[in-house]
Amino acid sequence: MSTLALVVAAGSGMRAPGERPKQYRLLGGEPVLRRTIRRLSACSAIDALRVVIDPRHRDFYEESVGDLDLPPPIAGGASRRESVRRGLEALAGEAPARVLVHDAARPLVSPRLCSRVAGALREAEAAIPVLPVTDSLRRVADDRIREEVSREGVYRVQTPQGFAFGAILEAHRRAVSASATDDSAIALEAGMEVHTVPGEEDNIKLTLPEDFARAERILAAERPCFRTGFGYDVHAIDATRPLVLCGVTIPDAPGLAGHSDADVGLHALTDALLATIGAGDIGSHFPPGEERWRNAPSHIFLEHARNRVAAAGGRIEHVDVTIVCEAPRLAPHRAAMCARIGDLLGLPPRAVSVKATTSEGLGFTGRREGIAAYAVATVGLPPGGTDVR
Questions:
Q1: Taking the model in full, what pTM does it have?
Q2: How many Å separate Cα 328 from the centre of its chain?
Q3: What's the half-sphere exposure (Cβ side, CA atoms, 13 Å) at 313?
Q4: Which long-range contacts (CB under 8 A, 24 or more apart) does 357-364 make?
Q5: Parallel/antiparallel/unpaired status of strands 98-103 and 74-75
Q6: Which pLDDT belongs to residue 18?
Q7: What CA–CA distance (Å, rounded) separates 60 from 26?
Q8: Of 259, 235, 254, 233, which Cα lies nearest the Cα of 243?
Q9: Cα angle at 107 between 104 and 108, to 5 degrees?
Q10: If 0-12 CB within 10 Å is exposed, 13-18 middle and 19+ buried, where does residue 288 land?
């Protein structure tokens, strides 16, 4: 085992109001500790993970992460320093080469940052993420400014903090300073050389209510944007042409009139896809008066819409087409239609739906004068992206 993450979750965490410690409160509908563990577990540089908790919080722990495949939690101490030392002592038998110590209250840590810290340990015995101080600094007493503090060479420190395991364990065993606020301070006290890597602004520590509000905003920006597009098309019957629906030629049935092959299903679906990115309709991309589109197979139109969605950074999640006609009976052809649409859009069978219905003899479809199609497409777009045209 080369690199192990030690998650420190033993604090009381009650500065943020709530009925439970902050590491067990919900953030984006998920317990903070669970989200932290998921983020760390997504880092390929981390081989295993252990959690240090307050034994009095065992019920909260089990409720939050008990279903995850984790080793038993380690009992922490009265202070963060004592909890980390106990965690390191518990890992001594496993003797990992490196350890990343991370606060459970930093649930937005990215796998990229974890890899950056772990990578620095190939050359250094200690590495921590830091951020520059951009605000002016003043020393204040009794609500009055007493002096200016230079921000030159001053940085904000984050976790995970990475160390050669044996060195940081020995540093904790020998630590005497009561003023050390994190493990890098203990490492410095022991004479270790601590290197730095760039931190991340979103890797915030949850302490106060406003921290939770900020974290919720960050998560909202990370979530993909889902859009739904609707398409509708209709073509009149033309018995002199073959009938093509959803990319499949239906034998022994009158076809449809149109400039292209008049595939009413793919036309409606093309419009639905274009709608998800606000890219107009099929006619604006393939004007029906242009000779080059005469008798064109409609899969060209659908592939164009698919490519436009991809160029916008979108991913087609699901499509649904409903054909309205009295005849022919389409049930025997439904599987072939779904397969053809799936092939054209690169979708698995579960993401494609094709249905057929009648209008109970009412209207132009009921009189068998034409066939109509409705289509709905769901597309996932990049987080925070709005102008995708």
A1: 0.68
A2: 44
A3: 12
A4: 357/322, 357/323, 357/324, 358/324, 358/325, 358/326, 359/324, 359/326, 361/326, 364/234
A5: unpaired
A6: 64
A7: 12
A8: 254
A9: 145
A10: exposed
pLDDT band at 27 (very low <50, low <70, confident <90, very high): very high
Read off the DSSP letter of residue 68.
S
| 261 CB-near residues (< 8 Å, 6+ apart) | 244, 295, 296, 297, 298
In angstroms, the CA 344 to CA 281 distance is 19
Of 67, 75, 35, 27, nearest in space to 51 by CA? 75
CB 309 within 8 A of CB 272: no
Distance of CA 84 to the CA centre of its chain: 30
Q: Quick one: which of 56, 53, 101 has its CA closest to 75?
A: 53
* Integer-rounded Cα radius of gyration of the chain: 30
What letter does residue 360 receive in the DSSP assignment?
T
Adjacent-strand bridge partners of 261:
none
Domains and their CATH numbers in the chain? 3-222 (3.90.550.10), 225-381 (3.30.1330.50)
State in Å, rounded, how far the first CA of the chain is from the last one. 48
Listing DSSP states for 97-164 in one string gives: SEEEEEETT-TT--HHHHHHHHHHTTT-SEEEEEEE--S-EEEEETTEEEEEE--TT-EEE-S-EEEE
- Supply the pLDDT for residue 347: 95
Please give the Cα distance from 177 to 189 (Å, whole number).
Answer: 8
